[in-house]
Every structure is written in C-alpha cells, then in structure tokens.
Amino acid sequence: MAKVSGSRNQQEAAKRAAETARKKAFEELTVKGRKEAEKISVLLNKTKQHELLARHDVGVKINSMMNDEDVYGKRIIPNLSIITNYAETALYTAKKMANFWTREEMVDISERKNSKGQTISYKHIECVCQLDNDKLRERLLDAILEHSLTSREVADMVKESTGGKSSSGGRKPQPPRTPTQGLQQIIKRAADFNKRYEDVWVEHVFEAIDAMPSDDYDDDLFVALQEAKQAIDDLRGTVAIADKVLSEHIGKVGNVVKEDTSIRAEDDSEDEDDDISQPLASDEEDEDEEDEEYEEDEDDEDDYDYEKVGLKKASTSVS
Fold it and tell me: Which of 3, 37, 43, 158 is the most buried (most CB within 10 A)?
C-alpha cells in the first residue's frame, strides 16, 4: 500500500509539473497560435476516438469468429495475433470491449471529455476492461473524467481494487501435451520476441521516442519505460535460469541417446556378421556330405527345404 501511495504522490507531482508546463507553453504562443493548438488538440482527440471505435469493431469481429469456429477455424486469437502482429492481450481486450459496451455506448464514451477537454484514451479503456463488474467500470469511467486521471493512475486503482490480480481477459496458457511440444513453444516465443524487437519495437518505440519533441515526454511514457526495463530485467533472470536448465537436460538426455545409439549400432553390426557367416558356413560344407544328402529319401529332402526356408524367414524378420 505504501508503494502505491508513493507512486500516486509522484504522479500528482508530475501532473502539477505538466500543468505548469502547459500553461507556460500557451503563454509563449500568440492568440493565433493558441487557436491552432486547440484545433490540433481536437484532431488528436478524434484520433483517440477512432482508435476506440476501431478496436471495438475488432472485438465484434473476434466474437463472431470465436462463436463459429467450424466456419472460421480454431485458435482464433492466437492465430490473429500472429497474422496481425498485435499482442493476444490487445485482442482479448478488444473482445471485452465488444462484450461490455455496444458500439453506441462506445461512441458516447469516446466523446466524453475530462476537465482539461481531453477524451478517454485506449490505455484508459484497457485498464477499465480488467474489471468484470459493470458498476465498478462505470464508476471508474466517471472518475477518469471527473479527476482527469492518467492511465497509470487508473492502472494503480484497478490493481489495488483487484488485490494485485490482473483480469486482462487472456486465457490461461495450456500446458504442452509433451516435453517436445513445450520446447517448440519456447523456440517460437523466443523467435517472436526477437522478431518483434527488430521489426516493430526498434522503429515504433525507441526511434519514435528519439523523434519526439522533448515537450511531448510525459509521466506515462516515463513510467512505461521504467516498467519495460524491469520486465526485461526479470526476463533476463528467467532466460539465464532457462539456459542453465536447458544445458543440463541436453547433457542428461544426450548421454542416454548416445548410449542407445551405440548399442543399436553394435546390434546392427552383430546382425550383419550373422548374415555374412551363414552362407560362408554352407560354402565350407564337405562335398561328400552334400552327395550323401542328395541320396536321402524325398521326405527328408522336403523336410530340410522346409526348415531352410523357415530359417530364412526368421532371419529376415529379425533383421
């Protein structure tokens, strides 16, 4: 609780600093400049509104697909995540948006403004969607507008009200059916992370921050950077442990597999020796003995041929 309280004090201080900077920025603009700034603010609010409605529309389509998997296929959200390059959690949030509000209600929410004339952002809605109680969601929406809460403040409030448990809407990961399948999951997740970093995050996160005017830096961005750094630090520790465990199991399994391979190779070699020695033994038979066998009655000869064929069949089946 003390940690949350300290975080709130920091955020309050950041809000006051941002408000002071905003007033100073307005003072440095002419009357014409202030009018243009207001027009730009309206355009940006419209952008946020379009994003909310677009994500709601996505949620409607996801619900439709998941309700008829015979038509649209299996594992709808995981597959959509791969195809669209959007995180599964974002797609589950869109699904929840469609479950919690009609499009008309979402239009109304997107048009409401706080005391600063700002509309609710997707980040706000993402936090609100973690609450399953209808009344709590509506109260939180009212509080966001009335007190001009940042998305970080809303996230802290949700975390506190849920006892630190997130309800992001994602399904609990299914355990793999076999260890080999689990290892394939590790390979895929690692490859996905590398690909997202190289193809998406470098340009759209770090290079985008570098291109931003420093005046656009805010407390949400700062907190997000800190949390991302903490997440990477946590991941680094997990990766180090996983790397050690993988190395140990490679040695453990490798020793058994190599031993089995060696044994199979020896067995194959012995089988080959048996196959080779069989005809050589018959070649070394004395010619006189062969003549004597031909002098035996036909019944004995038939019995011998039958046994000989039987031995050949047995030899073939073993090898």
Answer: 158
Those residues with Cβ within 8 angstroms of residue 100's Cβ, 6 or more apart along the chain or in another chain:
129, 134, 137
Residue 99 CA to residue 127 CA, distance in Å, equals: 15
3-class SS letters over 133-164: CHHHHHHHHHHHHHHCCCHHHHHHHHHHHCCC
Token look-up 């570098």 returns 210
pLDDT at 4: 44
Residue 226 pLDDT exceeds 70: yes
Contacts of 127 (CB under 8 A, 6+ apart): 140, 151, 154, 155, 157, 158
d(CA 139, CA 157): 12
**Contact in structure between 122 and 51 (CB atoms under 8 Å):** yes
Cβ neighbours of residue 191 under 8 Å, at least 6 residues apart? Answer: none
Question: CB count, 10 Å around CB of 159?
Answer: 15
Whether the CB-CB separation of 273 and 315 falls below 8 Å is answered with no
Average pLDDT over residues 109-129: 89
- Residue 312, judged by CB atoms within 10 A of its CB (0-12, 13-18, 19+), counts as exposed
> Global pTM?
0.45
Q: How far apart are CA 276 and CA 270, in angstroms?
A: 10
Q: What are residue 205's DSSP bridge partners?
A: none
Q: Per-residue pLDDT tens for 198-215? A: 999 999 999 989 988 888
pLDDT at 31 over 90: no
pLDDT above 70: residue 301: no
Kindly tell me if the per-residue pLDDT of 63 is higher than 80. Answer: yes
Q: Which amino acid is at 189?
A: R
The pLDDT of 245-250, averaged and rounded, is 91
Top mean pLDDT of 163-167, 228-232, 285-289 is at 228-232
Burial bucket for residue 118 (CB in 10 Å: 0-12, 13-18, 19+): middle
